[in-house]
Amino acid sequence: MTDAMLAPAKTASAAAPLLKISGLEAWYGESHILHGVDFDVRPGEVVTLLGRNGAGKTTTLKSIMGIVGKRKGSARFEGKEIIGLASDRIARLGIALCPEERGIFASLSVQENLMLPPRIAASGGLTLDRIFTLFPNLKERLASGGSKLSGGEQQMLAIARILRTGAKLLMLDEPTEGLAPVIIQQIGRTIAELKQEGFTILLVEQNFRFASTVADRYFVMEHGRVIDAFANSELEANMGKLHDYLGV
Amino acid sequence: MFALLGISPQQLFQQLLVGLINGSFYALLSLGLSVIFGMLNIVNFAHGALYMMGAFAAYFLLNLLGLNYWFALVLAPLIVGAFGALLERVLLRRLAGLDPLYSLLLTFGLALVIQGLFQNFFGSSGLPYAMPSQLTGATNLGFMFLPIYRGWVVVFSAVVCFSTWFLIEKTRLGAYLRAATENPTLVRAFGINVPRMITLTYAFGIGLAALAGVLAAPIYQVRPAMGADIISVVFAVVVIGGMGSILGSIVTGFALGIIEGLTKVFYPEASNTVVFVIMAFVLLIRPAGLFGRTA
Ligand SMILES: Nc1ncnc2c1ncn2[C@@H]1O[C@H](COP(=O)(O)OP(=O)(O)OP(=O)(O)O)[C@@H](O)[C@H]1O
Ligand SMILES: [Mg+2]
Question: What CATH superfamily classification does A1-93+204-248 receive?
Answer without folding.
Answer: P-loop containing nucleotide triphosphate hydrolases (3.40.50.300)
